[in-house]
Structures are given as C-alpha cells and as structure tokens.
C-alpha cells in the first residue's frame, strides 16, 4: 500500500516541468488548490483532468504510478462520497426506502451529483498536489519557500527555520513509509494479523507498528540534529545559495498556461454554467 504513495517522492528526469522555477511551481500548486474549490460543473472537472494530464505528459512522469497513489486515499473518497449520497436531500428523488419507522433512506439526483463531484475533487486535488513533489527536489522546495516568505523577515519571522523544517518533513515521508512497511512485514513474519477482527482489534494490532515507528523516528531526528550541529548548520544569518533561482521564459509560458486554466474555471462557474447541459445533457 505504502509503495504506491507518490506524494513526497521525487521522480528524476529531464523535462520542461522539472526545469521550471520551484517558486513558480509552488505558486502554481497553491493557485490550483484554491481554484479547484470553485469548481461546480463536470465541464470544469474535465478541464482540470486535461490540465493535469498535460502536466504529467510534459513532465515525463509515469501515469500508472500516479494513478496507483489514488488507492491510498480510496477509503476517504468512498466514505465522503457515501455520506453525501445519503445526507444530501435536495433535488429529485431517485430511490426511497423505509428502513425503519425512524429511518427513511432517500437518494436524490443532487446527492448523486454531489457525491461524484466530491470524489473527483479529492482525487484531482491529491494528484495535482503530488505533482509538485514529483517534479521538485526537497532542497529546491526549501529554497523556493524561503524566497517566497522572505518579506516576513521584516517582522523577525524565522523564515529559514520554517522552510528547512517543512523540507525535512517532506523528505522523510517516503522514509517513514518505507520504515512502516518493513515493520509490518516483520510483524507479519512473526504471525501478526492486521486485516482480521473488529475495529478495536485492528487498532490494538497497530500498536506493535506504532511503537517501533515512533522510536525509529525519534532516533532519526536525534541523529539529524547532531549531524546539523556538527556541520555548524545555520551558524550564520547570511547564507549563500549554490543555485540561484531565476524566472525564465519557460516560467512565463507556464504562468500563462496556468492563468488560462484558472480563467476558464472561473468563467465556467459564473458565466458558462449551462455548458454541462450542452455537453453532458445535465441539469441540476
């Protein structure tokens, strides 16, 4: 399960997306996350899917590996979709069953559309966010975050410390997942079972995994702190960069591409709401 998670992992290759300025990619990702919450129609979701597919193709990323990462959030997607399916009561009634005198099961057309859209939003959101880590190294993300937060130094905000903390946390996501997999395999070899029993039994079975994982995490953090201290890391405020980040023509073209995507999303929300009826024949 954990091997399929692509978030936090870097996929090295020489592509246009990889060569973009990390500050631009970070801003693009933030704008993508904000804009996806303004989506209301299936046409906009189709535009987002085409946009992400284009980024994956230009980034020379393995499509199947990215799709496999969706399996890690499949339970959350299904759970939230089912909640919307049964608790959204507006719209034309499709199914209505009297389960008990106090419980009327009702599925409406609006509830079905709401469930589908919420599932699409979660899948596309996770996929779009994972593209940032797949195409950008942790150190480049650290430098980009520090550069974007540089104005906060006026109020004595520890910009560099926050950036390096977030970079270390992002870098250790694959490490901790790999450590979890090893611990689970070791426990299974000793006869442990994590898929049988009720909810409390499964929660209790996770203790032999959590305790070694916490011990290993604290040990790694302690070793990292000693390594940073031995190298006099952050001993001076005037640190230099080995790679100076500069915006180029590729970043400008990418910004225009992102801007066109956002404009289409907002126009579809406020002006072209009837496109779903024209393209898909849907009215809701």
Q: Tell me the number of strands.
A: 2
Radius of gyration: 23 Å
| Mean pLDDT, all residues | 78
Principal-axes geometry comes out as globular
Structural class: mainly alpha
The major beta sheet can be summarized as:
2 strands, antiparallel
Task: Measure the end-to-end span.
Answer: 37 Å
Number of individual domains: 2
Strand content: under 5%
The sequence of SSEs as H and E is: HHHHHEEHHHHHHH
Instruction: Estimate percent helicity.
Output: 55-70%
Q: Describe the strand arrangement of the main beta sheet, using strand numbers.
A: 1-2
Compute the number of helices.
12
| Low-confidence runs | none
Structural description of this entry:
With 284 residues, the chain is mainly α. It folds into two domains: 1-136 and 247-284, no CATH class; 138-242, no CATH class. 65% of the residues lie in helices and 5% in strands. The chain contains twelve helices and two strands, in the order H-H-H-H-H-E-E-H-H-H-H-H-H-H. The protein has helices at residues 16-19, 22-36, 42-58, 63-69, 74-87, 109-135, 138-148, 159-189, 199-205, 207-230, 249-270, 275-279; strands spanning 93-100, 103-108. It has a two-stranded antiparallel ribbon. Strand 1 and strand 2 (103-108) form a beta hairpin. Helix 2 (22-36) runs parallel beside helix 11. The radius of gyration is 23 Å and the shape is globular.
